[in-house]
Design brief:
By secondary structure, this protein is α+β, with helices and mostly antiparallel strands. The chain is built from 15 helices and 14 strands. The chain has a seven-stranded mixed β-barrel with strand order 3-4-8-7-6-5-9. Helix 10 packs antiparallel against helix 11.
């Protein structure tokens, strides 16, 4: 999570001190909004600082699209200690209905998936912009009947916004902010290999020209199959591990028979994205056995060559002795090739944390990517999903 602003930290400190003395202290922020913090005065509550930040506001307007404008400015929320990408709980303070919603604080309704609800703020410094409750492609007032009913009766509808999770929507927003096109001209700065996300895996322990990864050389949907197949030919790929197509599906793509890769031994299986599931483990075991039975150089691909391919290659990298930093760097090159995410950007680390730094250690039974013997853990993983010592030795010899 991102650190809070200095102002938020000062406010939290003052709130704790006040609550220790009085138990509950209301704080006026603006004439149209109020903030309060409550806490148990026992030692445990004070030590953990589990004091929710709460701010109240009335409904000022409901527009034709059902967006609910609050009598609360974005700056009021920022001053109270809330930040963009926090998740807040919104509920009515009075009335019969106590239905509540957990909403991310975003810059636009487009920052959430279609049909999802959000509280839209202006960026820091946008003091005059009100907070607006919206549904992406929907009608917030109609869906949250308590707001509509209060407006119809002419009664003041007062809502409370309580901080539920600091920065809780940040990782999801980062993923939604990624933009990819399928136009070669939009990636003029990349080579054909980079455009196809094609590369050799050259981490510690991996032999040169033994393992490659890329987008699909068969499926033309991303307009990269031609470049991926041409790169596979240039690298003299001998075996293909297709993690996105079930048996026979690849052959139905236009131009499949004309590809270099279609003439090779090809393992095909539509892998699920749940890397911790029994289904994924079974499919991974079958793919690894196929590698043991065939020859390098191997090409592993899915659609983008990013998620399923990224995890599968990371497993093999760990198995061959790669360091955590090497594994992460190779994994994140896909985000650079597709989305232009650079290693010096904040979102680079956030994406790594939400993906390979999280999924690989979880699958290997480690507390952290940096918290154990990756090589041994990867070998144990292969044994646990059913590979024999002989199959494991064959894979190692083919990749060394």
């Amino acid at each position: 999570m991102r650190p809070r602003s200095l102002l938020a930290l000062i406010l939290a400190f003052l709130t704790i001190a006040l609550c220790a003395c009085a138990g509950k202290i209301p704080v006026d922020v603006t004439p149209s909004a109020s903030v309060s913090a409550t806490a148990e005065t026992d030692e445990t509550a004070l030590l953990t600082e589990e004091i929710p930040v709460v701010i109240e506001a009335s409904v000022r307007e409901i527009d034709r699209e059902g967006n609910v404008t609050l009598s609360l400015r974005s700056s009021d929320l920022y001053a109270a200690g809330f930040s963009l990408w926090d998740i807040v709980t919104v509920k009515p303070v009075s009335g019969k209905s106590q239905r509540s919603y957990d909403l991310p604080l975003c810059l636009s309704a487009d920052d959430v998936s279609f049909g999802s609800k959000t509280c839209v703020l202006s960026p820091n410094g946008g003091a005059d912009a009100p907070a607006v409750l919206s549904v992406s492609g929907g009608d917030f007032a109609l869906e949250s009947r308590w707001v509509l009913n209060a407006a119809d009766t002419g009664e003041a509808s007062v809502l409370s916004l309580t901080l539920k999770e600091q920065g809780g929507y940040y990782d999801a927003w980062i993923k939604r902010s990624l933009k990819r096109t399928n136009k070669r001209e939009d990636y003029a700065h990349l080579s054909d290999e980079e455009y196809a996300n094609f590369r050799a895996v050259l981490t510690t322990g991996m032999g040169p020209n033994k393992l490659f990864r890329s987008t699909s050389p068969f499926n033309p949907s991303y307009n990269r199959s031609h470049e991926a197949d041409a790169a596979a030919r240039a690298a003299a790929i001998a075996t293909v591990i297709d993690l996105t197509d079930d048996q026979g599906e690849a052959a139905r793509y236009a131009g499949y028979k004309d590809t270099y890769c279609s003439g090779l031994p090809v393992f095909t299986r539509a892998f699920v994205m749940d890397f911790l599931s029994e289904t994924f483990e079974k499919d991974a075991a079958d793919a690894l056995r196929f590698m043991a039975q065939n020859e390098a150089p191997f090409l592993v691909h899915c659609m983008e060559g990013k998620d399923r391919t990224g995890f599968f290659c990371a497993l093999l990298e760990a198995f061959m002795g790669a360091s955590p930093d090497e594994i992460v760097a190779d994994y994140m090159r896909s985000y650079e090739n597709f989305y232009g995410v650079k290693a010096n950007e904040e979102r680079w680390g956030a994406l790594a944390d939400a993906n390979i730094r999280k999924t690989l250690p979880a699958a290997l039974g480690l507390s952290s990517l940096y918290g154990g013997d990756l090589k041994k853990a990867a070998e144990n993983y292969m044994k646990q999903i059913g590979l024999t010592d002989g199959e494991i030795a064959l894979i190692r010899s083919k990749l060394a």
